[in-house]
Design a protein that fits this description.
2 copies of one chain form a homodimer.
Chain A (H helix, E strand, L loop, with lengths): L3 H8 L3 H9 L6 H14 L5 H8 L4 E6 L4 H17 L3 E6 L4 H9 L9 E5 L5 H9 L4 E4 L8 E4 L1 H14 L5 E5 L10 H16 L6 E3 L4 H12 L7 E4 L2 H13 L9 E6 L10 E4 L2 H15 L10 E2 L2 E3 L9
Parallel strand pairs in A: 1-2, 1-3, 3-4, 4-5, 5-11, 6-7, 6-8, 8-9, 9-10
Antiparallel strand pairs in A: 10-12
Chain A binds a DNA duplex (16 and 16 nucleotides) through helix 2 and helix 4.
Chain lengths: ~325, ~325
DNA sequence: CTGAAAGCGCTTACAG
DNA sequence: CTGAAAGCGCTTACAG
């Protein structure tokens, strides 16, 4: 790898001047700047990350803490982050937060503390109080994306409004027996996403003077949705519509309905949340939340905090109802 | 952040000795080693990546070059890589290879050359000749995973054998009118995955003395599979079985069959390749290829090349036929 | 076994 | 506008 010193020699200046010319800081005459740039290009010079990191204290890398299980969603988000960062010449260091306690401890106690990143983006991850403290001890900007952590500056969708919008959609189609599949965290202060979606559901039913046709708790997987829907549909007075708190739950609900011989949407309307890549395939009405844009927003927030010339995004992220064939008026 | 100097002061030794004690290199008395380790722990010391990188020339980070579009597959692979690397205290730097020409050039000409990584894993990516040259110029170990590049040491599944196994499965059920959905790269030297799967298909039909019931070229998406299957099924003598070169193609084929009023597997058997996370949901018979294990293998290969005490994996990766309800004897 | 010193490749006040 | 020098925080021959 070429060093700055070689570039300087070729351009017949000191390394100091070469550095200034390349970074565009401090006064350098146009002529020398051009000479240095030419030399750098000819030699294919790129400054060593370690050396300039050590000298400046800046790494030009952003850490992204992800639970790699959330496949489709996080791939989208990551793509959005990567694209936004690449524009400004930042790299991504990926930290995989698993459930394995030992691996996780090493992550928070060691990996993150090597000083490899200028800021950390935390993706939709439940982080313990101790882990939050460890993150804060890094003394670097932290950006949450959909994390249920009041301590973190978090970009989020208004999930209570999402719950309202989904429920409103079913009500406006004429449904009066509406059930919900999701999760509730008791005593939550208004940061847990499933809880907020459930509250929106209740809000809207209450406003419409309609009683809930049931709530089934489920793991946020297709299988979880399947089980929950089956339970709801086997009740004496089954719902005519289900609001599932995620698309995967909704996929499971669709399959459960089919397995019971029910037609969707003839016998049962189903709405999900996410805009999962397969929602089109399932003809699922859903609430799209633009994960790629979310990633770009998180990246922009991180960059803005680092003083880069980037507009900080709004803290509230957009969503949009996408009507498809899985919802219709009740029979 | 605590520095080595502070640790040394606390342990009442020189920074040199502190470094040796912590890294376990060179002679250090047990007593001092213990004192230093104690001090490091008390102070929460972790060596600065930039400083030790600059001093040793090693970053303890592995670059992973991914096409972030391949969602489910690459998430699995990445998880496998991350887990294997975390064991040895290596980090991941993620490089997103998009189709955007400018972004891509910046990636190969600048980002990768900052010297941030000790080795690069290239995931199932078609890389141009010039890009290969740029990778090689990095003078770092390169590990391909399923890349169609003869120039790269690449871990791969024997995809011709995969094609044979899939076809054999259909033949052994009694099918004689078997079609293939996939892609063929003319003149390929035996590295392009779809081409190899197609060759395996031909191999096995030839061995059985059976004529192909058709080949449909398709983009490797659900929609591509849908179109291709529709074309095949509208022929005067439609196939009774389809071997799709990927699970997503197979999902599309299943949907196309259903849309034409055909029963799977009653009227049409379908087999895919991948072990996609949704293959169970579709009851799809497929050839599982264990992407998480592939990631772990790629990581191990990289670490072994870097001299870490890790067994280098076999160059040929395993696969396994998973029979499900989408294949059955012809009616 | 331990320490002083040099060096990794940059950057940036400080002089001039 | 330009250069010499110091420093970023480690590591590692080299002496002792």
């Amino acid at each position: 790898m070429t060093t700055l010193e070689e570039v300087a020699r070729h351009a017949e200046v000191s390394p100091a001047t070469a550095s200034r010319a390349l970074r565009g800081r401090g006064r350098v005459s146009d002529a020398t700047r051009a000479r240095v740039q030419r030399a750098a290009e000819d030699l294919g010079y790129v400054a060593s990350a370690a050396a300039s990191g050590l000298a400046t204290g800046r790494t030009r890398s952003i850490g992204v803490l992800v639970p790699l299980v959330d496949k489709w969603f996080f791939a989208q988000v990551l793509d959005g982050i990567a694209t936004r960062l690449a524009d400004l010449g930042y790299d991504i260091t990926l930290y995989n937060a698993t459930d394995d306690a030992a691996q996780r401890r090493r992550l928070f106690e060691t990996a993150l503390r090597r000083g490899r990143v200028d800021a950390v983006i935390i993706l939709s991850l439940a982080v313990s109080a101790e882990e939050i403290a460890q993150l804060q001890a890094l003394d670097r900007p932290l950006i949450g994306l959909g994390t249920p952590c009041p301590e973190l500056a978090t970009l989020r969708v208004d999930d209570r409004a999402v719950g309202r919008a989904a429920t409103q959609h079913l009500l406006s189609l004429g449904h009066r027996r509406i059930a919900h599949i999701g999760r509730v965290r008791p005593g939550d202060s208004g940061v847990d996403i499933p809880t907020l979606r459930h509250r929106g559901f209740i809000d809207e039913l209450t406003a419409a003077g309609v009683t809930s046709a049931g709530f089934a708790r489920a793991d946020f997987t297709i299988d979880g949705g399947h089980r929950a829907a089956r339970d709801l549909l086997r009740q004496p007075q089954p719902p005519t519509a289900i609001f599932a708190a995620s698309d995967e739950l909704a996929f499971g609900a669709i399959l459960a309905a089919r397995a019971l011989g029910l037609d969707v949407p003839g016998d049962l309307s189903i709405i999900g949340v996410d805009g999962h890549e397969l929602s089109g395939l399932f003809e699922l009405t859903t609430i799209e939340q633009f994960p790629r844009a979310q990633g770009a927003a998180a990246a922009a927030a991180a960059l803005a905090t680092l003083g880069e010339d980037v507009a900080a995004p709004a803290a509230s992220l957009p969503f949009e109802l996408v009507p498809r064939a899985s919802t219709a008026p009740p029979a």
